[in-house]
Amino acid sequence: MQHDTHHGRHDRHSGHADHSAHADHADHSDHASHADHTGHSAHSVGKVGWAMAARATLHCLTGCAIGEILGMVIGAALGWGNMATMVLAIVLAFFFGYTLTLRSILKAGVDFGTALRVAFAADTLSIAVMELIDNGVIALWPGAMDATLADTLFWGALAISLAVAFVATTPVNKWMIGRGKGHAVVHQYHH
User: Is the overall model pTM greater than 0.85, yes or no?
Assistant: First the structure.
């Protein structure tokens, strides 16, 4: 209520009743240079929708899933143990996650060095969280680490672990995009 009282006193003060002298503050013509960014307002720093975060996470999930499945298939085919297979799957998840982002940035005509830096900045935290959750679920799931490619348990645990990782990583991507990081950096190159 104290706030309203101050406004009342301010209105009664005759020296401050007319703010027309400050009309130049209302004129935003000096901001015309920002007009070309109107189509990108959804990617700006600040309020970010869950749909945008989910799309970024789905992009990340696609690369992670390709790497995870390929790593597990290669590890199983070569007769590797659980740890070696998991390490290969994680390395390939990062590789394919970065590759998908690199592909889209390079299509925008960006040089390889810049595209690589953008991919690392955009995807590293997202992929790391996704891999931590995904592999954590599989490691904790009874029998999942010993399941073979022919077992329903293997594919069921993998599908559920990726779904849990998607749900856990979406808020991370929302937070990063809201601060102009993560996939917000990638969107600068999509015109």
Answer: no
